[in-house]
Amino acid sequence: MAKRKKGKTKTVKKAKKSGRKPNLAFMKPMTPSSTLAAVIGGNAMPRTEVTKKIWGYIKRNSLQDKKNRRMINADDKLKVVFGGKSQVSMFEMTKLVSKHLK
């Protein structure tokens, strides 16, 4: 039986280019209205940060519906932001919140 020499194989790693580019519109600081500022604060922040803060508020105050987790039950502060609705879906919430950003 012949012995095989174990040679070193070189692996060349190619840098992967991501096809996604970040959308700069989401990163632009937006100023919340006074009603939205009562919930998340009055500082200008990107839309992504606004969404994080609203979800933090919802979780802290247990406003997510127990049976249907996609629905948000509004308290007094959020009811004003949601246009008087007492319950909205999480998808409708982002649409309603965007009206309060300048």
Please characterize this protein's 3D structure.
The protein has helices spanning 24-27, 34-40, 47-60, 76-81, 90-98; strands at 71-73, 87-89. The N and C termini lie far apart (79 Å). It contains 5 helices and 2 strands. The radius of gyration is 24 Å and the shape is elongated. The chain has a two-stranded antiparallel ribbon with strand order 1-2. With 102 residues, it is mainly alpha-helical. Helix content is 39%, strand content 6%.
Number of helical segments? Answer: 5
| Major β-sheet profile | 2 strands, antiparallel
Order of helices and strands: HHHEHEH
Strand order of the largest sheet: 1-2
Mean pLDDT: 88
State Rg.
Answer: 24 Å
Strand content: 5-15%
The CA-CA distance between the termini, in Å, is: 79 Å
In the predicted model, the low-confidence regions spanning at least 5 consecutive residues are none
The geometry reads as elongated
Q: What's the number of extended β-strand segments?
A: 2
Helix content percent band? 25-40%
Instruction: Quickly give the structural class.
Output: mainly alpha
